[in-house]
Design a protein that fits this description.
Layout: H1 11-16, E1 19-30, H2 36-56, E2 64-73, E3 81-85, H3 99-118, E4 128-138, E5 154-164, E6 167-176, E7 186-189
Antiparallel strand pairs: 1-4, 2-3, 2-4, 5-6, 6-7
Length: about 200
Amino acid sequence: VFPRDPGTLSAWGILYSDIVHAIVRARPMKADATAIPLLASTCSELRREGAALLRADGIADIQQVLSITLDLRYPGQAYEIQVPLDLPTTWSAPTDRGLDEALVSAVSDFHNAHETQYAHAERHVTPEVVAVRIAATGKLAKPIDHAFSSPSSIQRKGPRSVFAGGRWHRREVRRSSSHRGGARDAFHPARLGADDGVDG
């Protein structure tokens, strides 16, 4: 079964997919108030770099979405969980407020995610930041939905042998091209009646 507008591995899908630049910085630090200066400068750096890459792609600022994610783990763990750092939309510089509240929220989300995935959470333990990531997304115009249509026609193709009702019959076969989207034509035998020993 093929969807009407397949996007996977097709030129159409590539043309209308959003542009995304993924950038990561390794920034080991404790996820508490002491991390705010380094975290602020890292987020500011990533946002500038992501925005510059999108502008080089011809994406206007209004069509840009810059999403920060933290890789968090409990001390001593060998695996991390990625949680979003929901900065205020007006946040743009290390001196802006709002990062501390965003970090507190991210830590809470980490505890919740850890409990969901591993059935326990150490809420009394301050997690560590391992890396800071940004997904710089450039929103592209999407195709307008439209209906496909094709002309309908039925052509007589001559008699064919059709097996029905336990025996062979000679019946006219008609070629129909009324399928949507220009699908391959199908051949349909003319309807058999009661005199052929077939209901219908």
